[in-house]
Amino acid sequence: MNRRTFLRISGAVPVAGLAGGPPGDEWERLRRKLAGPLFRPGDPGYPEAKQGYFTMYDHRMPAAVVGATRVEDVQAAVAFAARHDLPIAARSGGHSYPGYSTVDAGIVVDLSRFSGVAVRPDGRAVIGAGALLGPIATTLAAAGRVLPAGSCDTVGIAGLALGGGVGVLDRKYGLTCDHLEAARIVTADARVRTVSAAAEPDLFWALRGGGGGNFGIVTGFTFATVPIADVATFDLHFPVGTQAALFAAWQEWQPAMPDELWSGMGLGDDHANLGGTFLGPESRMNELLDDLIRRVGTPPAEQRRRVTDHLSAMGSFDDRDSRPGAVVNRAAYVGTSRMLTRPAEDPAAVVDVLIRDPGVDTIIDSGGGAIARVGVRETPFPHRKALASFQFLHGAEPADGGEAEARRSLALVRDGLGPEFGTTGYVNYLDPEMPDWPVAYYGVNLPRLRAVARRYDPRGIFAFPQGLSAPHSTVHKGSS
């Protein structure tokens, strides 16, 4: 137990961090070691440098933001934080639902300058930890390749891959973490390690789904990619009132589909939508969709089916403006999750919970296929056999009641579902109020993950409220 942990437990200092902190000359010494900028409160650019994606956490005040441009900058920041018992958080895309990448009174290591994407002749991709999914997809497409990943352009590759990485191609090709072949990471001792299945395999295993921020700060990845191909896409909008019928039909239909078909469902009190992709002929996709429509018993009120290139297909699932130079709008909403482990015995009862609160939106991503053919213990991602992931979202603007009210609404949905959902959740949709979160996020892999964290971070340098490197109730620190 270090000094900061003791003071936190004893109540001598607030959660925001130690009063005072390192003297100014120490910060100047750190500044001189960095190739990139150091932003401190009062410096020009600090208000912008400390921002993550979510506006609810703008009140948080990091002691410094390190704009890392080289791995030595990350090493210097980690060594400084360890020496002064400061919280430290890595930030790539900044989409941490609880805002863990904007840490009070500590150091934010901004990895946005690690944004390079290079495609080797053999199809492998070397990607910086600060790269976003939109530019990654564009660069890979130019080389005729694709990395199975999410479809939101502004999400960072680091957080996505380190937590597993679900997306529209994963039933065919597996999760993003299944394509990770090597990673460069700065651990708590400020050492740079390049890990793979052959080099420090336990740490490499932990990075393939063990959650961002738990074991160090990753600065770069090497991924295997797959050849790009045209994609058939569909978007079906069913009439209001058919939510239960759609879900009931879908949970029997989707598991029987070929790996080439992925679907995502949106359910709310005023909508019942199903979209997805098919890696095959449009005519075959239409046959499969017509089978679902017959099961629902009600034709879609609106539908679109077409063949398009991969990038256009990804754009159809992302409502953000991804054009070069477009302004990325920040947002205020919160989320949580559950995993559907088997078909719901009473689909109508499940849907009743989902649509009871008009402020809650449910996004359902299908599982199965290649995801399920990886062993539960082969990577830390424990939900290999799940039929689907359920993500629940609620606005957190003042007009929505703010963050606290949004989380209360989400808790009623999260905890109101049946035994088919159990103690489960997806670590990339972190919920600070998730009951029994270590088991929900990591399942049978929790003991091994904690052992890896103890080995590489024995002092809890990277501890945070839902982290693995120290007791979660003792230290408030950040994650990527």
From TrEMBL:
Q: Which domain of life is it from?
A: Bacteria
Question: Where in the numbering of this chain does the FAD-binding PCMH-type domain appear?
Answer: 58-228
- Please give the Gene3D superfamilies that the UniProt record associates with this protein: 3.30.465.10, 3.40.462.20, Uridine Diphospho-n-acetylenolpyruvylglucosamine Reductase, domain 2
- Secretion signal, residue range per the UniProt entry: none
User: What keywords are annotated for this sequence in UniProt?
Assistant: FAD, Flavoprotein, Oxidoreductase
Which cofactor(s) are needed, names only?
Answer: FAD
Family statement drawn from the similarity comment of this UniProt entry = Belongs to the oxygen-dependent FAD-linked oxidoreductase family.
* Name of protein: FAD-binding oxidoreductase
